[in-house]
Protein: Ribonuclease P protein component
Amino acid sequence: MLPSENRLRRREEFAAAMRRGRRAGRPHLVVHLTEGSDPHVAEGTPPPPRAGFVVSKAVGNAVARHRVQRRLRHLVRARLSDLPAGSLVVVRALPGAERAAFDQLARELDAALERLLGGVRG
Structure:
């Protein structure tokens, strides 16, 4: 489970991250990243990075979708410290993600984030 302050909840936040952000596609997922300040956070405090997930019915049945979402949530949680403050990240699973191994999803997420962050990740 992601901490409450690191979750995207509102449709507008998902839409903003997907429309205004950059994206990197991989065979089983697409990562959208918007860097910048969150208008809903008070001035002077560095806002934490926030993440959301989109796993459609094209991925599989409910059991498969929840499994994919749990895997992606676990992977993103481990990488939150690498994300810039105030960034919004949306990870969208593609059909076939339910058949991908956990390690493969991890490699694809790392490659997408590496591309989006320009190689600055530690």
